[in-house]
């Protein structure tokens, strides 16, 4: 039994503010992961960092994201979305401020790990909160906006890094890190006062609190009977636990969400991280202007997400993800021609890859939030994020080795093969969830009616 006041509400100021506030986490992810890459140039010289030190600092955040998603997803389902929603941003502020004053490699590694944990925690926290507040017909698009914010954050980091490096030189690296602290504080303030998810509240039997939250956010009074029906429906599903993600239909959904996410992000993250190096392997330019080039690459990824945001709620999730994966394979396979390809072809292939990857990208957080019930929704999102980061870390670590030993052409073909696996997974397991309530999309196929209370109220309500 859904809460109709939430599922059928028109978009209003609250929804827009909540979307911006939730998008702040992915924006900071893109910004903080990218600004450290720019700052490392100045850090290496001033702090005498070795190649190993740089690798540790760069990998610490990815490891932290893996741990944060895996651990804090279940915590969010237990303690609630609203509490964790501000705590993790406070950690980002503190970690970013301390990074400005760090002087030793181990300090940067620890702080980057902590920042990564906070970022990994924010993914399931913010996405589950937004998914449980927005109307059904807008859910796919608004959840996709969160992914879009990642690329905007990354582009902003490279642009800021480029300007600061040009004006102040490499010695401005601490000021670069300070910008991350300021942005984290701004987004924390934006999140203060956000009400708790009504679905989570009714799932815990707190119907009075859910009624107050809906009144505060949407200025609508929901009959207690409707909330009791929704609470009974949530209780009828049962309080699923972490192990339920690996049983029955939820096992298939867990594998689907984690694998397609990993197959999408593995080549993308590697290409994104080493974009200037890869372009150099194709005979294109590199140097300090590579920061600006990376910012432009981010903008192309943003452009690819824009049409996908409209299509997921118009034509559906399944056709978007299946066709997008199929189209992404082609430019990567063409890049398998290596350095012999004309420059125009290389640029066209990179642009095509960035544009076509928008489909899987905007669904990275939509599917985990739609395919699992409220009691394990954040947990599922955290697990999917953690699985994806295994691929991101592997791709980031192995790509330089592959470029050196196998060459650019073979490396691109490997990326095409990984993307092909993503297409197979999506073709076999992607479900259509467009226009359905979270109660419908997260239920087991063929499940019996959830509760007599819910059914009776639905029959009485016009």
UniProtKB/TrEMBL annotation:
Q: Where is the composition biased (Polar residues)?
A: 439-455
Enumerate the InterPro entries for this protein: MFS_dom (IPR020846), MFS_sugar_transport-like (IPR005828), MFS_Sugar_Transporters (IPR050360), MFS_trans_sf (IPR036259), Sugar_transporter_CS (IPR005829)
Q: What are the UniProt keywords, alphabetically?
A: Membrane, Transmembrane, Transmembrane helix
User: Which residues belong to any copy of the Major facilitator superfamily (MFS) profile domain?
Assistant: 18-434
Annotated spans, Disordered: 438-462
**Protein's membrane topology:** Multi-pass membrane protein
Gene3D superfamilies cross-referenced by the UniProt entry? MFS general substrate transporter like domains
Q: Where are the transmembrane segments?
A: 20-43, 55-73, 85-103, 109-130, 142-165, 171-190, 250-271, 291-312, 324-356, 408-430
Subcellular location, record wording = Cell membrane
State the family named in the UniProt similarity comment for this chain: Belongs to the major facilitator superfamily. Sugar transporter (TC 2.A.1.1) family.
PANTHER family noted in UniProt: PLASTIDIC GLUCOSE TRANSPORTER 4 (PTHR48022)
Its recorded name reads: MFS transporter
Species source reads Streptomyces justiciae
